[in-house]
Amino acid sequence: MTNTTDALVLYGETFQSRLLLGTSRYPSPQILENAVRQSQPGMLTASLRRQNVSSTDTGNRFWDLLRRLNVPVLPNTAGCHSAQEVITTAHMAREVFQTSWIKLELIGDDYTLQPDTLNLVGVASQLIKDGFKVLPYCTEDLVLCQRLVDVGCEAIMPWAAPIGTGKGPINPYALRTLRERLSVPMIVDAGLGLPSHACQVMEWGFDGVLLNTAVALAQDPAAMASAFAQATQAGRTAFLSGAMIEQQSAQASTPVLGTPFWHQT
Amino acid sequence: MQVFINQTPHELPQAATLKMAITLVQAQPPFAAAVNLVFVPNSQYEQKVLQSQDRIDIISPVTGG
Questions:
Q1: Higher-scoring residue by pLDDT: A251, A148
Q2: Is A88's Cβ below 8 Å from some Cβ in B?
Q3: Range of the domain at B8
Q4: d(CA A178, nearest CA chain B) in Å
Q5: What's the mean pLDDT when you consider all of chain B?
Q6: Is A103 one of the catalytic residues?
Q7: How far is the alpha carbon of A49 from chain B, nearest alpha carbon, in Å?
Q8: A138: pLDDT confidence band, cut at 50, 70 and 90?
Q9: What is the ipTM of this complex?
């Protein structure tokens, strides 16, 4: 969904959509490709894993698909549990994908996949010094996010809920507080399960959403990807439109003046 | 000497380079390499001399979220 007047801008670069899409867990590469073509995401996330050097497969089909889709790639550091693992993976990703973008993932707990918030800021700082455009996957903790901005992150990616849960925003108060307190672009990453979740956070003023499982595990991933793209844009438009102020009591929308039979009985 | 390439033991001559290790396993591009958890740019594969028991990681693009 291209909106030339209200584009997502991260680190000075403009993206055609506020929906960022993951590439994992799809039933097939073809279905992934269909989902991408249906939703036209601003970026696609990808990762790195050890090459199966004993394999007879001489090609990397995923790589071929990425090149064919021609969508900006956001490599991640998924699975990294230490600063050194993150730094090394990021440098390897930069060489392989030929991009300085990195989705910083530093996992602190394997059960919830919660980021290691105590070490995240230091790693982000190092990556920025190394020339990366860092998009840190973080919790909705205000002080953590402020520290990430302080060390040079020009955008941050707080979670809505643990990765893959599809629960939607489980701490609306903290997310909305975060939006009110920080002015950098913020992309809600992880935990979204429905297009309404994406629309909701966009209505709150977040700048984009990043999701994977909600699309990949849908019965029709391509259709769901399209639904998320539309919901993301709808939420953005609603945010820019300025919502009405909620009222405690009913207020007639039809004019009362001239109501027929008023007080006649 | 023995080195580990993607966790599998391999034999290489003394003072072998990272380039030789990559050639040995016929790594398929695109890939990047690290030795003992330190990234080695592809421009340095021929200069990077390996030591016995070095752990070499060769990684390639995969899907990710």
A1: A148
A2: yes
A3: 2-59
A4: 23
A5: 97
A6: yes
A7: 5
A8: very high
A9: 0.96
Q: Do B62 and A97 touch (CB under 8 A)?
A: no
Confidence at A259, pLDDT banded by 50, 70, 90: confident
Any domain includes B32:
yes
Convert the pLDDT of each residue in A103-123 to its tens digit. 999 999 999 999 999 999 999
CATH code of the domain occupying A8-50+62-240: 3.20.20.70
- The domain tally of chain B equals 1
Token pair for B29: 């591009």
Question: Which of the four pLDDT bands, split at 50, 70 and 90, describes residue A1?
Answer: very low
Tell me if B64 is assigned to some domain: no
Residue B28's domain is classified under what CATH number?
3.10.20.30
Do the Cβ atoms of A97 and A123 come closer than 8 Å?
no
Q: Which residues of B touch A56 (CB under 8 A)?
A: none
> Measured between alpha carbons, how far is A228 from A113 in angstroms, rounded to an integer?
23
CB contact under 8 A, B39 and A88: yes
Question: Which residues fall within 8 angstroms of residue A28, CB to CB, at 6 or more apart?
Answer: none
Structural domain contains residue B36:
yes
Nearest Cα residue in chain B from A28: B63
Element (H, E) at B9: strand B8-11
Report CB contact under 8 Å: A88, B34. Answer: yes
Whether B62 and A49 lie within 8 Å, measured CB to CB: yes
Give the rounded percent of residues in chain A with a pLDDT score beyond 90.
Answer: 88
**What part of A 188-207 touches B (C-beta under 8 Å)?**
190
Does residue B17 form part of some domain?
A: yes
